[in-house]
Amino acid sequence: MNIKSIKHFLALAETLHFGRASEECNISISALSRNIRQLEDEVGVELFTRDNRTVTLTQEGKKFLTYARDAVSQWRLIRHELADSSDQLHGEISIYCSVTASYSFLFELLNQFRQVHPGIEIKLHTGDPDEAIARILDGKEDITIAAHPTSVARNLAFKPITISPLVFIAPVEQHLPSVPTQPPETADQWSKVPMILSEAGVSRNSIDQWFRKQDISPTIYAQVAGNEAIVSMVSLGFGVGVVPSIVLDNSPLKERVQVWDVQPELAPYDIGLFTLNKSLKNPMVEAFWSLMTSK
């Protein structure tokens, strides 16, 4: 068993798709399939169940996944320790964030980081920000950018970047009679407004709490993954949404929606970096973490 085979296993375990995993590993699908078979022969069990349509982890595969993530993490550490004694760091770290965060914060951070640590390769993944903390806890990423929830696991470290207000947004032009362009004045009026909200996460928890305090039973028109999708649906006139203002500020659709002045205001987004406490022992993770201190 070698570290490359384990990395191939991780790519397939995280994508559950031979095509995407082979692209990530820069090898052919047939070579990836052959490597996975060889790995299964070495461990003596099937790690994946596959047919013509799907790929899933077996129970043994799920157990091996934990080992594989730890093995790759330890490999990165020992490779650095055995490298030459120069001050230059070499290796890779993975970062996960939303599309908005990638150009709102990450561009400047990576630009500075590359100048100081050109030997460190960044693997960037983007997606739903509500999945960011789970990806850290699952060992899929080294660092994520996310909003600070009400409670955080003890094994997580957090470093703030900025605070962004959560705002109500509505279409500039009225497309449907049920979607107002001005904020409702009563709880009864609010309860009839079709709302477009995040499926879960910090913003959903904040708006749910806001509605409870105002004694409002909202009408949920749609629950979506990703704040950018909320802005899009609101701009089309399907309902009223709630997003961090930083998402709206960077949206190409911001001229097609308006921000409502609603009182009391929603609790703001406290956005920052997350990593596991133990990951800060990794010199490359610590180097990126320290970059925020110098800003």
How would you characterize this protein structure?
This protein is 43% helix and 23% strand. The chain has 295 residues and is of the alpha/beta class. The protein has 3 domains: 3-82, Winged helix-like DNA-binding domain superfamily/Winged helix DNA-binding domain (Arc Repressor Mutant, subunit A, Orthogonal Bundle); 89-162 and 270-291, D-Maltodextrin-Binding Protein, domain 2; 166-267, 3-Layer(aba) Sandwich (D-Maltodextrin-Binding Protein, domain 2), CATH 3.40.190. The strands form 3 sheets. It has a 5-stranded mixed sheet. Strands 9-8-10-7-11 form a 5-stranded mixed sheet, sandwiched between helices. Strands 1-2 form a two-stranded antiparallel ribbon. β3 (91-97), α5 and β4 (120-126) form a beta-alpha-beta unit. α1 crosses α2 (18-25) and α1 crosses α3 (29-43). The two termini are 42 Å apart. 30% of the residues are buried. The model has no long low-confidence stretch (mean pLDDT 89).
